[in-house]
Amino acid sequence: MAIFTNQATLSYNGNVLNSNIVTGNIVQVLSATKNAVSEDYSANDDVTYVISIVNTGASAYTGVTVSDNLGAYQVGGQTVFPLDYVEGSIQYYLNGVLQGDPTVSAQNGLVISGISVPANSSAILIYQASVNSYAPLGEEGSITNTAVITAAGLTEPISVSETVNARSEANLSIAKFISPETVAENGEITYTFVIQNLGSRAIVATDDVVIADTFSPILNNISVELDGVLLSEPADYTYNEETGVFATAAGRVTVPAATFIRDDETGVWSTTPGVATLVIRGTV
Description:
The protein is mainly beta. It is 0% helix and 55% strand.
């Protein structure tokens, strides 16, 4: 809705009179909304956006253009884009019927053109954008991207925005190493388990993480360390020397959250995983 005012003047014999000021409203018949299918994201995710354009008027809007800034923000004196348009992902519907693809340009943002919205009709645009290395990570991270809709006959452009937040979650991986790879009978062997957390949430005791293994050949006289601290049985782990079955006590293993740092010059985010290390030694 746009408010306008108007005032007239009356001139006679060198005199000028002003009329009263009248105020009117122009109600736009074209409206729009923008939504993300998922409200949060992680590194390398694809985010699906839906833009709905509704025309409640008696005339069609042609030549409609949608310009999406893909979350652009300033850092180090430059503009960076935390989202990349996923090529070929655009879908264009009129009144629920799939249309041919509109024209798409994805240089320095996303521009979708060649859209028409007939009278008393609705158009829906669905597209995906992938999260890249400029996307803020960590629990405080978010991406707000704004789309601006323009068309001949619009009193003013329509702006719609959507914000998605960096997902607060743990993201674990585990790697196992053996040393030495060749061992003599009755020799000592060391297994090292490295647990990494690439997520923004730490693993705590109440997450009940358990590391389990069945050693073959069976280890004897084992010692167990977690992050350099010697563990004791059965408080911290259990081990059966007849079967080789090992398991840490539920919740004994915790893993710190990853740390996320943005380069203030390039805007690129880097991730340093949180790490927990379990070392088990024994003889074969």
